[in-house]
Design brief:
about 120 residues, mainly alpha, about 55% helix, elongated
Length: about 120
């Protein structure tokens, strides 16, 4: 009888372990689905919005907004990846494409209503 109880305990432990693995997998799947939806949203924006290279920013926005000010805001987190910019780099150094519409919306807001820096650029 004792052997049967040991087998039952082992089976219950294996069931609990599998349940935990399934729950962990479900969380991973949910996270992957959210990431996939974010990528789809960014992809759709690339189809409908106009994106320019960071070197063309001054021409696009006039002298009021320089490429340097855009880069500074990217580096300190005020402009969000996938919304305001994407990195098309091959890995050596960043190559930014800037979404004209969303960056214009950002700069049209009064400074106190804009997103604050997430980090100090010099600490990167």
């Amino acid at each position: 009888m004792e052997a049967v109880e040991d087998i039952q305990r082992a089976i219950l432990a294996a069931i609990r372990e599998q349940t935990q693995a399934i729950q962990s997998s479900e969380k991973t799947i949910q996270k992957a689905q959210r990431t996939q939806q974010q990528l789809i949203d960014v992809y759709r924006r690339t189809l409908t919005d106009r994106w320019v290279g960071s070197d063309d920013v001054a021409c696009e926005f006039g002298m009021a907004i320089s490429a340097r000010s855009i880069t500074n805001r990217i580096q300190d987190g005020r402009l969000e990846q996938g919304i305001h910019w994407i990195n098309t780099s091959d890995g050596d150094r960043p190559t930014y494409l800037i979404c004209v519409r969303t960056v214009m919306e950002y700069f049209k807001k009064p400074p106190q209503k804009r997103r604050p820096p997430k980090r100090n650029r010099l600490q990167n």
